[in-house]
Specification:
By secondary structure, the protein is mainly alpha-helical. It has three helices and no strands. The chain has helices at 9-22, 26-46, 69-88. The longest helix has 21 residues, at 26-46.
Length: 89
C-alpha cells in the first residue's frame, strides 16, 4: 500500500543509515522498523503486571526509634562514611 508520511529529519537519517549499513532498501528498513515497533508494543501489552511479595526483614535492632527515621538514616550514613574512610587508610 502506498502512503505519504512526514518523518522527522533525524529519524529519516537514521533509517537511511540503517539501510546503507544493512544493504537493504530504504522501504524495507522502514517496514521492518515499523513492524518491530508494533510487535514490541504487543509484547508489552501482554506482559503480566509486576507483583511485589512482601518479605519480613526481621526485627528492628534495639535502641532505634523508627519514628525518628531521619536521625536513624543520618546515623547509618555517618557510620558508613567512617567505615569507608577507615578502608582508605
Amino acid at each position: 500500500m502506498r502512503t505519504t508520511l512526514t518523518i522527522d529529519d533525524s529519524i529519516a537519517r537514521a533509517l537511511k543509515d540503517a539501510a546503507h549499513r544493512s544493504g537493504k532498501s530504504y522501504k524495507q528498513v522502514v517496514n521492518e522498523t515499523l513492524r518491530a515497533g508494533l510487535s514490541a508494543n504487543r509484547i508489552r501489552d501482554a506482559a503480566q503486571p509486576y507483583r511485589l511479595k512482601p518479605v519480613s526483614m526481621g526485627e528492628v535492632s534495639g535502641g532505634y526509634n523508627l519514628t525518628k527515621a531521619l536521625e536513624l538514616a543520618d546515623y547509618l550514613e555517618e557510620e558508613e562514611t567512617a567505615r569507608k574512610l577507615e578502608l582508605k587508610k
